[in-house]
Design goal:
single chain; alpha+beta; Alpha-D-Glucose-1,6-Bisphosphate, Chain A, domain 4; 7 strands; DUF2867; DUF2867 domain-containing protein
């Protein structure tokens, strides 16, 4: 199993996330070393790391949507998964449950704004100790007390889901790598 490293609350140097989304109440970052032959552009990595969730994560998101729908919070459109075909990510488009805010060769910023909180997710590519690594960072800004309470309830799941998504995506990348 590939280790996912938590960078705690520090965001990677060079990331646009702190500039594009100031005033965050919560941040975290998780990194994973990419397989040797993996693509290194952030758009392709966003597809690989966030585009296909393990089954238990999809079920958890459906449960979340069922619970928050009566509260009038944003729910993910029809359990929508990102397209299987690698569509070019562009600002303003939707990528599964996320809106794309910015796309650069080394970083993609995704997220959503809602009445209780706003959040951004960054997929950032950087050199690692043994090759290239992907860093997935999250920044959350509370819009009211309910946003603070909501994220306090969601945070333990977030800390399980993000590393699971990275491990799952890395396995997909390794399986797709050309045989040597």
């Amino acid at each position: 199993m590939q280790t996912v490293h938590s960078l705690q609350q520090s965001l990677p140097a060079g990331s646009q996330l702190p500039l594009a989304f100031s005033g965050a109440d919560f941040t975290d970052a998780y990194s994973i070393e990419l397989p040797p032959d993996a693509p290194t552009d952030a758009s392709t990595l966003t597809h690989a790391l966030l585009g296909q969730a393990p089954g238990w994560v999809r079920q958890l998101m459906r449960l979340r949507d069922t619970l928050v729908r009566p509260l009038g919070l944003y729910t993910f459109p029809g359990g929508q998964q990102p397209p299987a075909v690698l569509a070019v990510l562009e600002p303003g488009m939707r990528f599964g449950p996320f809106r794309v805010f910015d796309v650069r060769p080394g970083e993609v910023l995704l997220g959503e704004n809602d009445k209780h909180l706003d959040f951004r997710v960054s997929v950032f590519v950087q050199p690692g100790a043994a090759g290239t690594e992907a860093v997935v960072s999250t920044a959350v800004r509370y819009n009211n007390r309910f946003g603070r309470l909501y994220f306090a309830l969601v945070r333990p799941f977030h800390q399980l889901v993000v590393p699971a998504m990275l491990r799952h995506g890395r396995r997909q990348l390794a399986a797709a790598a050309p045989a040597r």
